[in-house]
Amino acid sequence: MFPQNPEWITLACDEIYYSDDVEELYKEFEVIDFNEDLWTEGINTINERLFKDVAERFIDWIKKLKSTVYVITHDGTINNYRQILEERNLTRTDFLKETEWYKLIL
């Protein structure tokens, strides 16, 4: 969802995967949990301020890894991360195109 708005309804493609399901499907990856209700309620249903807090903790976690990390997500979530990382406002016209990707070195 972009911008974040807890009053909006998510799309059918915004299916929530629970951490247990992700861990079972992708055993080779590490699943992180910030003790938020994101695994049951979803990241698209939280307000912009909470998203920023969670995203900043996630970014800090990535920096500590000192390795390549791939974040696979929807375009709205990508734009929300980009706003935080680039420290500028984006619009829906800034969405990545189909199969496009965004590279960032932290």
- Summarize the helix and strand pattern as letters: HHHH
Give the helix proportion (percent range): 25-40%
Shape: globular
Largest sheet: none
Mean pLDDT: 83
Number of strands: 0
Strand residue content: under 5%
Total helix count? 4
Ends apart, CA distance between termini: 24 Å
Overall radius of gyration: 14 Å
Describe the structure.
- The mean pLDDT is 83.
- The chain is 39% helix and 0% strand.
- The protein is globular, with a radius of gyration of 14 Å.
- The two termini are 24 Å apart.
- The chain has 106 residues and is mostly helical.
- The longest helix has 18 residues.
Give me some keywords for this one.
mainly alpha; 0% strand; 39% helix; single chain; 106 residues
Q: Which helices and strands appear, and what pairs or packs with what?
A:
Layout: H1 19-25, H2 38-41, H3 48-65, H4 75-86
Task: Write a concise synopsis of the structure shown.
It comes from Paenibacillus macquariensis. With about 110 residues, this protein is an all-alpha fold. Helices cover about 40% and strands about 0% of the residues.
